[in-house]
Design brief:
This protein is mainly α and 152 residues long. The chain has seven helices and two strands. It is 67% helix and 5% strand. The protein has a two-stranded antiparallel sheet with strand order 1-2.
Length: 152
């Protein structure tokens, strides 16, 4: 492991600094995903929202914000737009009148499935030429890093 007792002193050191590489990859990945989705007029935050609701329906806006890596205000505006489009609806569960859940509608599920080929195209482009064993190691390492941050 490369130690950095002081800030990187040149571009090569910065390029070797893992937090920088992870942030750069995330930024470049989001830009690429948005460009691919823009062809179908769907924003990445919309796709993420539809995806998390497809997996776990009945989330609150704060829960959606956490799972989609969005600010609460962005998640709220996204939900407003998705409600207006008929992709989701707000519901109050009978068991907790204070809770406002967001539920995926049939049209929202269809939008997710319609957009998914662009995400598969992105996935294939990003992983092109990488050995499957390296990808397995990468997934394991990133999961461990995520868990380390979750514990911190």
């Amino acid at each position: 492991m490369t130690a950095f007792p002081k800030p990187p002193g040149d571009s090569a050191e910065l390029e070797a600094y893992l937090p920088y590489l992870i942030n750069r990859l995330a930024n470049m990945g989001q830009n690429a995903q948005n460009r691919m989705l823009d062809r179908g007029s769907t924003a990445l935050v919309v796709l993420r929202t539809l995806s998390v609701l497809h997996i776990e329906d009945g989330l609150t806006i704060n829960e959606i914000a956490t799972r989609t890596f969005a600010e609460q205000s962005t998640a709220s505006r996204t939900i407003d737009a998705l409600v207006a489009a008929g992709f989701v609806e707000r519901r109050t569960p009978a068991t907790d009148q204070r809770r406002r859940e967001i539920v995926l509608m049939k049209a929202g599920r269809q939008q997710l499935f319609d957009c998914w080929p662009q995400m598969e195209e992105y996935h294939a482009m990003m992983l092109a030429g990488i050995d499957p064993n390296d990808l397995a190691t990468c997934r394991r390492v990133l999961a461990t890093m995520t868990e380390n941050l979750r514990k911190a």
